[in-house]
């Protein structure tokens, strides 16, 4: 019995160490990977990320080591794995309408940074964001949607321009994540153009 317990503890400890011990990618390299991936995507007609059975087997067996965390909108036109030409295990993705962050999203960012070793966090807003549009036009919302628009309204203030509001909302999330995890990770904002496929990186 004691022996079994020791083996069980060793296995748990082993997997924990492994989660920490994967190959980490520094923030500058991660950002470069995403930029290169986006350039590839703009001209692509099909996804080019690795979704092969071999990649599935490798990540199932050896664990995940995503090189960046991406927080973006749930909008079906803003698909981060496609936008950055990523495959299985490449990016740790958090999607929520309006790319807002609340404690659950912060917990996800923290998990990726502490346990998966991601050094870069990207907040990716996008053009024609419906959630930002709703906050901007002060459309009356029902049910739970106000949890999204309240955050966005606080971020955009009196701004009336759609594109500027998208940017302000993205920058507000960048500031929030920086405030929480700025010492642990590099936080970068960007806007995705849903028509051209191009990602514009915010300074
Ligand atoms: Zn959106």
Plain-language structure description:
There is one protein chain. The chain has helices spanning 2-21, 27-43, 53-62, 80-83, 103-116, 130-137, 146-156, 162-181; strands spanning 68-72, 91-95, 120-126, 186-192, 199-201. The protein has 8 helices and 5 strands; from the N terminus they run H-H-H-E-H-E-H-E-H-H-H-E-E. It has one domain (24-201): Beta-carbonic Anhydrase, Chain A. The relative contact order is 0.15. It is globular, with a radius of gyration of 19 Å. The termini are far apart. By secondary structure, it is an alpha/beta fold. Helix 4 (80-83) links the parallel strand 1 and strand 2 (91-95). A 5-stranded mixed beta sheet has the order 2-1-3-4-5, with helices on both faces. 51% of the residues lie in helices and 13% in strands.
Gross morphology is: globular
Helix content: 40-55%
Distance between the termini: 59 Å
| Number of H- or I-type helical stretches | 8
Count of the separate structural domains? 1
**Which CATH top level class fits?**
Alpha Beta
Q: Summarize the helix and strand pattern as letters.
A: HHHEHEHEHHHEE
Strands, count = 5
Question: What is the CATH-assigned architecture?
Answer: 3-Layer(aba) Sandwich
User: What are the distinct ligands in this entry?
Assistant: zinc ion
How does the major sheet shape up? Answer: 5 strands, mixed
CATH superfamily: Carbonic anhydrase
* CATH-defined topology: Beta-carbonic Anhydrase, Chain A
**How would you state the average pLDDT, rounded?**
91
Low-confidence stretches: 1-21
* Helix/sheet category: alpha/beta
How much β-strand is present in the residues?
5-15%
